[in-house]
Amino acid sequence: MLRQIHALPGLIAALLVTALALTGAVLSVQPALERFAAPSVATATMSVAALAEAAKAQHAEIDKIVKTASGTVVVSYFDGDKAGADLVDPATGRVIGPHEPSATIRFVTNLHRSLLLGTAGRVAVGLGALTMVVLTITGAMMLAARLGGWSALLKPIRGGGRQRWHAQAGRLAITGLLLTAMTGCFLSLTSFELIPDGSADPVATASGTGGERASVGSLAALRAVDLADLRELAFPYAADPTDTYRLTTAAGVMQIDAATGEALSFQPHSTARQLYEMIYRLHTGQGLWPLGLFLGLSALAVPVFAVTGAMIWWQRRRSLPRIADNSSASAADTVILVGSEGNSTWGFARTLHAALTQAGHKVHAAPMNALAPAYPKAARMLILAATYGDGTAPASASGFLARLDRSALTLPVAVLGFGDRSFPKFCRFAEDVAAALAKKGWPALIEIDRIDRQSAQSFALWGDRLGAALGHALALAHVAERPKTTVLELVKRADYGAGVQAPTAILTFRLPEAAAGLPFWRRLVPAALPPFEAGDLVGILPPGSAVPRYYSLASSSREGILEICVRKQPGGLCSGFLSDLPLGGRIDGFIRAKPDFRPNASTAPLILIGAGAGIAPLMGFLRANRSHRETHLYWGGRSPASDFLYREDLASCMADGRLSALKAVFSRVAGGGYVQDRLATDAQHLATLLRRGAQIMVCGGRDMAKGVSQALDAILAPMGSSTTALKASGLYLEDVY
Amino acid sequence: MRRLARALALALPLGLAGALAHSAAAEARPVRITTTLKPYGGDGAYLAIYITDPLGKLHKTVRIAGGKAKYYKHLSAWNRLSGGRIDGTTGASVGSGQSLSVSVDIADALIDAGYQIRVDSAVENENDVPGDAVAPLTTSGAGKPVAGRGYVKSLTFDM
Fold this sequence. Notes:
The complex is a heterodimer.
Chain A: H1 2-28, H2 30-37, H3 48-56, E1 61-67, E2 73-79, E3 82-88, E4 95-98, H4 103-114, H5 118-147, H6 161-191, H7 220-223, E5 230-234, E6 245-249, E7 252-256, E8 263-268, H8 271-284, H9 289-299, H10 301-319, E9 334-339, H11 344-358, E10 363-367, E11 380-386, H12 400-406, E12 413-419, H13 428-439, E13 449-452, H14 456-470, E14 486-496, E15 504-510, H15 520-524, E16 537-540, E17 549-552, E18 562-567, H16 573-579, E19 586-592, E20 606-611, H17 615-623, E21 631-637, H18 647-656, E22 661-666, H19 675-681, H20 683-691, E23 695-700, H21 702-716, H22 723-728, E24 732-736
Parallel strand pairs in A: 9-10, 9-11, 11-12, 12-13, 20-21, 20-23, 21-22, 23-24
Antiparallel strand pairs in A: 1-2, 1-5, 2-3, 3-4, 5-6, 6-7, 7-8, 14-15, 14-19, 15-18, 16-17, 16-19
Helix pairs in contact in A: 1-4, 1-5, 1-9, 1-10, 2-9, 5-6, 6-8, 6-9, 6-10, 19-21
Chain B: H1 2-25, E1 28-37, E2 45-52, E3 58-65, H2 76-82, E4 89-91, E5 99-107, E6 116-123, E7 128-136, E8 146-147, E9 152-158
Parallel strand pairs in B: 3-4
Antiparallel strand pairs in B: 1-5, 1-9, 2-3, 2-6, 6-7, 8-9
């Protein structure tokens, strides 16, 4: 919901708010320019009377003298039929030169105020300011939700390119934009007279004695006022003998008799006017030039928002799986909701959708997060939910439970969980969903079922059960869609661990050499590896299987190679295939980005912890550590003689400073142990590093990861912290398999 | 019944006053006042077109041009003379380089008797120009443009 409120007006108003922001940014520099062109008036240098006298000596008729918030003094005058204005030195009263407001600035100001479209433009600009308020507030709410609460707003932002830019720019600009947009709304409302701005305040109309006018320099009431306090002095109209001087200061307006120099009336500024003036200055930065520059810089973030926001929206739209003949939510008799992290569960949803549609149903499929308040024609709901990581909701279902909690719906429902039985919390999210639905009183169409590792057979069996409940046959013949893969050729392999029952291989792949007979353009623009970084995953499809296995990458695509570490599992289809792969052998692989598993940009120490083949991404980070950030590696193997992976590479990283300390520990040597034991003996040293804000990255099997977090919790507890707390602030990252 | 009687009693004297005003208009003549602005290039200008008597007091407001009443006080000379009360017509502001023509019936007795047609002008966020253009209401002055000193390029009246 929040996202829609943010995205829809954002897209519609993107051009408008960008125009307002850019013109605003141009204008924001003015107060600073004026400030440096006109030094501020020192107190007790000159009285208003003296300045007025100096001005009067120059011209036949003075209209008024204005001192702006920036300290510029401008004298407007009439010489016969000619009106003009002079810039005056506030220290001496001497004319500096003619005051010629820049036509460009006037043009930009008008563009900013009304888009040069008169009243319609002013309405549009007001709505633009309102949109900006909505966007800033909803954006801040989304950012807070994403980072885990308002108190986390200053914590590091993780995530991929555009999103990160969008969030980062938002965090920097939020204060300035909120101030600009809210004051802009206020000014817009005053311009439509919906809020008083003091311009309707009554004007004092006392009349002077009408005697012969004395010289302005001799008027007592003007001699008493210092130039520093002046805002405006309006001279009496020559043709009106009883007209008076009007002196405006910060406090109010005083009428002064032109003949006697006596103060005739004083009217203090109304609260409405004072409020308006304050807000006007906060919006324009007039007289507050650092604020002006700050607001201008904040405004420059708006074009960044417009571009990255539109890209995020487009990317999200495109990544929504397309389903043929998807009925609308209001017309469907059957609703399929999908909770998926990658997109594999959507493949199953598509198969289910097609089979139900063929059986004559009107079927609507949508992400779980799109749970609608009502489905007027629906008779049943089918929920396909994957589980992400440690039993949590996948991306497309992150808000489902909260939405369900507010929903008044009840429909017969069937829940199908997708997961991997080798994880301890197999299908945990699907179970949570089923429990929440039961608690809300949704009857179960059929009992919850679970699909292990995308098994097409289990899915077909579930289809049979569902068909029985629906009273017709339902054949679900699911064929997993092959992801778009790249063919890679094995160019190097190094085998370890055969002697300690832990056969592990470091495999290096390249794109195959371009074959002869390729099209001409292909030879000009050679094929390149898909982009990836160390720590991302490569999905590899072993021959005869449509289910990919994932391996952490030890290289980045910039190096021109793709390197992984594979531990041969007993009976493992993919690890067996890779372990036996000869040089020149080929694989089909695709990249899955893992942007959350990266070292942060801090200069604090980095602690890398891994065991066995889990060293792969850590090795990749070490190789890329060209800035020589202080990095400590804790790694566990079985025997230094047999499975010391990357021994030479680690030595060369030590030699050139990319690695500060190597703490390798082996379990099958006398006095050896596991990596978590090594952490415990190093507790004091680790505590020092953690106090310096060190980031920890862990890669390896689940048991090791558990042992490591226990060992670290023991070190963190006396410091009043925990691995959970570090995780929340992005300082504890895990890649566990 | 009683209410109807009261309404009739009110209507009668009103009708009489209307007839008197009509006969007075016979001794007046229509005067067309044309104000042309300079191409100053900003927002539309607010104008006060009014007639002053030989003592410089306000005789009649002919036209206030400009949409927002809160800005009328910037027509400063007129505002002082009138106290902000409008006894003429109002209309939209006049754009840069544009002209505004208004017609008003002026009694013959006012012509060549020291009366003046005056125009005050003001532009939002820019200047206020009291007495931007002043044309003496004389037979010989009719049809001769008078230059303004602010936003007004010329003021002409035709009888």
